[in-house]
Write a structure and sequence with these properties.
The chain starts with a helix and ends in an 11-residue tail after the last helix. A hairpin with an 8-residue loop joins strand 5 and strand 6. By secondary structure, it is of the alpha/beta class. The strands form three sheets. Strands 4-3-2-7-10-11-1-12-13 form a nine-stranded mixed beta sheet, sandwiched between helices. A two-stranded antiparallel ribbon has the order 5-6. It is 31% helix and 18% strand. The protein is built from eleven helices and 13 strands.
Length: 351
Amino acid sequence: MKNILLAATFGLMTFSMATAQEKTVNDGNKYVGYEERTGNESVVYFTRDLSAQGLIKAYEQVCGKIEGRVGVKLHTGEPNGPNIIPREWVKALLEKDLPGATVIETNTYYDGDRYTTAEHRKTLKVNGWTFCPVDILDEEGTAELPVVGGKWFTKMSVGGHLKNYDSMVALTHFKGHTQGGFGGSNKNIGIGCADGRIGKAWIHTTPGQPNQWDIKEEEFMERMTESTKASIDFFGEHVTYVNVMRNMSVSCDCEGVAAAPVVTPNVGILSSTDILAVDQACIDIIYAMTATEHHDLVERIETRHGLRQLSYMKELGMGNDRYVLIDLDNGGKRITAEEAAKGLKPFVQGK
């Protein structure tokens, strides 16, 4: 715990002049319908094909700027976690479209099976991530990336190896999250690229007090989003996003076998070169489900004020919350989130 508190205290150096005196916008529990949004539209691709072939199809729509040394940002999960993206899907994608790519991860902020690099590598073996290189980005230290226009930070501490890559593919298991409300591409990058000792402490902990997880709701969403912005700004056009809406527990994959049972129907796979558009489209599909289908996940999102992730991404100029949703299963027809959510089947474990 000592190194956590030291890291958090060091985080005082990263605050912008606004710091805690500037109030957050308290909109994280309020869903904004599509008709209430303004601005341009981005393109989001959608397939109901939850398979390796579906993953490949979704990725191939948005891979035009992925080049050079490629890092594939995954949540590889706690030991035997039941809900992570299937390894065989990822293997098929890498073999077909990303030969030579490396899965990238960071160590955790909490003490457990991914807290140290040695324990993390054991967990990777348990979970079957043995078919390609896995780079634990903070294994050899950290790097700092600027946060442009941030409220809380002027810089973010990330795994030092992140700077070794030319492009990043955010391959995200979309689900709920204990503190973030939901975990989409924003969470995958914002928490997942921040290093385990310094960056994650800056996001989660107010310096000088003992509660490791005291930063919550809108402030937490804003800090996490600023961390994301630092990483995606580093890659510029050479970053893309694929969200897999499958096995959507209200719990994050960091809870492993202790995750809450899945009750939300599986949906499909979405992809975009716009991080806000792809996360917003996933949220819109969740809200377009029937009350029975989405009750638990919506409750988790709103009680944690997770929707602030979306509005803050828009404020920071990270993308558009309006989009054209392209149905890859029906000749590229434009559809709505309501159409994407139509006729979903109840969740069955293992499918």
